[in-house]
Amino acid sequence: MLKFVIRAATRDDVTTITDFNLRLAAETEGISLDRELVTRGVTTLIDERSRGNYWVACSGGTLVGQLMHTREWSDWRNGDIWWIQSVYVREDHRRRGVFTQLHSHLKALAASDPGVVGLRLYVESDNLAARTTYERLGLHTARYQIMEDLFNSV
After folding, report:
1. Where are the domains of the chain?
2. Which positions fall inside the N-acetyltransferase domain (predicted)?
């Protein structure tokens, strides 16, 4: 397995992360997102680390993958659950361990923080490749289903 440099995203990465998010939406959900809206969303998270963070994987100085995490307070557990979101790996780097390293990095950070009680993510129910990868990394299907009421449809 190749070794990638994993680091926190910076404002210099906004354009690439935005591109990755646009590709992610097209590939996984068949939707086209508004570039300006996504750019603002990416920039906000990078500027406001209390909301979460983007982590990027680099190979030779080029971004080849990303994941975002956000925080959910759990009153039942008296701690934060970190949600893994916006997972994307460039097509030419898939199946090379990029996500495995991103996940391992985030899991180590979460485990070292006594205020974090676990990790969660959602996955498209028909995305068998992603589900298999997540299960191999120790994630399992939860008892919950996600329900939503979004106020501005994408």
Report:
1. 5-121
2. 4-154
